[in-house]
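To: structure subgroup
Subject: Chain for Friday's discussion

All,

I'm putting the inputs and outputs inline so they're searchable in the archive.
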Amino acid sequence: MGVPINETNFRTDQETWRVRLRTADPRGQVLGAGVLLGDGLVLTCAHVIRIAGTDDHQPAVTVEFPGSGSADSCSLRATVVPKHWVPRADDHTGDLALLQLDGPPPVASHATLHRLPTIWNRRVHFAGYPSRITGGKWAEALIKGPGGPGDEWVQIDPVTEADTLMRRFSGAGVVDNRTGRVIGIVVSKLDSEREGAHYRHGYMIPTGTIVKHLDLVRERCVSGRPPVPATLTTGHDDPDPGPASAGPASPRPAPDRGFARWLTRWLAGEDDLADVEITFVRDEDQDAALALRTTLTLADRERSPRTSVTTSRPDHTGTSPRPGSLDLALDAGGKTPAQIAEEIAEGMALDGPGLLPLPARIAADALPLTTVARGVDDALQPLETVELLHTLVRRGGRLLLVFRQLDSPALHRTYELLLDPATRPQRWLERIGRRVAALARTEERARELRRRAATCVSPLPSVPRYAPDLELKAARLEADPQQGTTGFLVKLSYVERTVETALLEAETAHRALTGQLARHQDLRGLLDGHQARLAAHGITEAAASLHQEAQRLLTGGPCELTVAEAAVERFVQAARKALETGQQ
């Protein structure tokens, strides 16, 4: 399946792994489509087999094999695999189901899901089973960007009007035209009307999302290199506490939140960060190493946490990247350029037989991916490795190089080849200056909020004052004698991370103070509103003492919000009871 095929000329009749699902009752109503995997497993969307009006699934369904070429024995019964029913959550994440056939399928081939980055305008095809079209309907689409709930889906736009998705396409296997690999399943269609124009597009659930939710699929039915290898998401940074008699354990590392935010901003492609960046994580910097691992894990669609709006909380800190924002992560330490080229080619689906050696194939056909490479300075041939990674940049990719050493031949070559020594240091300095200015503004706004809040709320969070010191550091960098050297880049990197940490702390204080003031206003509104209702009914004396106590707390000077909340709640409950009974 790794051999490239003509993107507009392929044999759909060989895709005998495509299946149609029906209800198991005598009516045999068509429910949708599915994909036959190995071991008699069938993948589909949870909503395809959901019992209408309930949160449960069909106890059994009939699976048909339109590509079997036989009128006999071409259907089997299937039931949901235990713990592999993932109904659509409140935020529409999930929506996956894995079925087990009750006998051997009547076709010889089955599909394997393949990991493939989300590539703009990549052409794909699939087949669904709309009503009254017994043989199914084929369609082609172009992959667009990530979208849908929780960024778990990928948008696919019909190539022509005839390719418009219809009902009962859900669960259909999506095949990449260039490689012939199955890269996901259709999940949804969307029709909309804007200013007289009709827009139609659909969504697919990519392999990364599927393997995140379905353990058996991840263990048995997936191919391709994971976007982030295990060596970059596991580490030995936590100190060994040792035996109990050895004394107190060393402090456990905590993620460097400023560094995590910087990484997240780069992954998001924020305008002030360049497509090619460098950073440093030394062996002894356990907090930074933990931040790197955590951020890469969250940015990997298949390793990111399973979420729903009923359990997730909004990320106000900007330290949680979008799932799927990282296409490829490389651990170059101890590897040759050939080994690294193999990983790149597999991650881009450029592997398999070919006339050209892998480096030449990458140079010709590399996809414009977002890549993080750690340990180039520890590669067996670091200079050649930098040259290989430069190929990805020339093909339109974004690249972050994470160095362990503060000075190395690989860092010098990266500076010369990828960072433009004539302009990058100055642009980097200007970027730091803008972030320091943002820090100063945020700290001043937080201090103003604190002055306002001090009249009514206690206790209050402290507001940091880091901006003056960091303004001084930025000014010293302007006159640093190391300018033009890699040592200057190291200083820029660490100062920028320090600024990001300070800005994060200032924003946290500002957000907390805003919340405290808003809660105080809410409590006053709640108190006044219920008092007005009592007055309208002429029964203000029903909870007079409770009202006075709550009002004293809210207007008599700084108060603890938890104490005021309890007092207001007591008054509200008494007021509601009085309004219900009409007693004075």
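Points worth raising on Friday:
The first strand starts at residue 18 and ends at 23.
Residues 1-5, 192-198, 236-246, 308-312 have pLDDT under 50 and may be disordered.

D.
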